[in-house]
Amino acid sequence: MSQIVILTGAGISAESGLNTFRGGGGLWENHRVEDVATPEAFARNPALVQRFYNERRAGAAKAQPNAAHIALTDLGHAFGDDLLLVTQNVDSLHEAGGSRAVVHMHGQLDQALCASCGHRWPSPTELEVGHACPSCGAPSARPDIVWFGEIPYHMDRILEALSQAEVFAAIGTSGQVYPAAGFGEFAQQAGAECHELTLEPSGNPIFDRVIAGPATHTVPLWVAEIKERFATKGRAGPGSDAPFPS
After folding, report:
1. Domain boundary among 145, 166, 192
2. Same domain as 44, residue 3
3. Which of 31, 69, 201, 207 is the most core-located residue (most Cβ within 10 A)?
4. 115 and 55 in one domain?
5. Are 192 and 5 in contact (CB under 8 A)?
């Protein structure tokens, strides 16, 4: 049973210099989502898609984990299997910060996927059009990224954890992309206390607590509170009579 389920989004990586989500006008790093983040885009213009993710992969490789990533690693060490860390981000900053067993629901930039046989392997820095799969030999390697129209990874595991969680925290995510946007409501209905840590509060009424500010500031403070509260109550969780500070 996961006492705590955490969902992280682009806001936690932004302070490490990564622009990992769509901006205004439906653009994603100056590209239309339809041109770089759908199976149809890859079929139509694989060279553009490969170049787009090669550039993102190179940028992510230079980024360093920040204080928010480090704090969540500390929380993971304290709770072990009682914590599930789910990320919408395709970078590996959580792992670089020391977190283990991170659930990447949208895939990873540093992994390649064979569109023919489904084999996965560590991606080279530059993945070329027609790159051969090391397993089946098909020239159909693509980034191991969940594109729009595809089903996110590990959904059964995530939903099971949410159904048992005592605390659900959404950190640095806009709450606009499904199915992740529905995790808070799912967790609340299952009895979890829901927290939102974000630069711009979503206004979603399912959150019992909203902490506004940059992740490098809010996450370490929140982690310290969580550790203290669970330790004080013998890890009894938020069903106890000790409220979180407002």
Report:
1. 145
2. no
3. 69
4. yes
5. yes
Is there a single domain that holds both residue 181 and residue 113?
no
Distance CA 183, CA 117 (A): 31
Q: What is the CATH number of the domain that holds 54?
A: 3.30.1600.10
- Taking a C-beta distance cutoff of 8 angstroms, is the pair 193, 168 a contact? yes
* Domain containing residue 117: 19-62+108-145
Task: Clarify whether 119 is annotated catalytic.
Answer: no
What CA–CA distance (Å, rounded) separates 92 from 154?
A: 17
Contact 11, 173 (CB under 8 A): yes
Helix ranges (DSSP H) in 63-214: 67-79, 93-96, 155-164, 183-189
Out of 69, 104, 106, 131, the active site residue is 106
pLDDT in tens, 21-53: 555 555 566 788 889 999 999 999 999 999 999
